[in-house]
Model the fold of this input.
Amino acid sequence: MKVGVVTFPGTLDDRDAARAATHAGTTAVSLWHNDADLKGVDAVILPGGFSYGDYLRCGAISRFAPVMEKIIDAANGGMPLLGICNGFQVLCEAHLLPGALTRNHELHFLCRDQKLEITNNQTAWTTSYKVGQEIVIPLKNGEGSFQCDDATLAALEGEGRIIARYVGENPNGSRNKIAGITNERGNVVGLMPHPEHAIDALTGPTADGLAFFTSVLNAMVK
Amino acid sequence: MAKIVVDVMLKPEILDPQGVAVSAALPRLGFTFAKSVRQGKRFEIEVDGDPTPAQLAEVEKAAEKLLANPVIETFTVRVEK
Done:
């Protein structure tokens, strides 16, 4: 199974995302922002970083990169798509996910190990978790506060589309402590913390993040 | 030369931490007039000659698609001499 990892100018975490995909037993394929070609991949990860320098709004310019047109089409057709941090911002700007990520409520850039609770294990990226499972993975962002209107929030809550919440103090002011959400179909997931930085004891605080990447393998094999 | 100005503001219900920080800094400098502060973005767009209605309509479209994110922001388009 091939997992594409997109590199935009300013992307930082593409190497770690590719490493995580490889570690999970899939084949990582590099995708370049300016290529309108998905190279036959079965799933795509939009990794973290500061694509296009976060100019205008985080993810606002990346959303119109040539590779994104193909990715949006494929995701609308059911292809698993995971956006991590900046990738989550891109997914919201592309309207593949509702809401938006805004400046952390206390303005600080955060970089720390964060406890999360998994609240939906029915998506393409979360089947290897149990509902209620607590995991610790790094959180590092300046604009990670998930915001949406009341109707959208009610829909996300009512349809079980919040896939992870922050445990303990709300780190960035996200509504209802939302750390990650999914679309109606469950193939597109956006997550603000970084599972790709927590896949083994050597390089991460835990190996808790690996299950995102094994989940997509299971989703495709099924 | 006339220019087209697009002002983008966060919607009133969206928390604006930058505005809050500015609003907290003002009284520390002795400026006590502000009840609250909201921070936004301003785009100045030059075109050849006076902007035409068609150009303004295009700018509206561009603002909707790129300059502002309608999920969290509102915008206004105007011509400034």
Helices of chain B lie at 17-28, 53-67. Residues 15 and 38 of chain B are 9 Å apart (CA to CA).
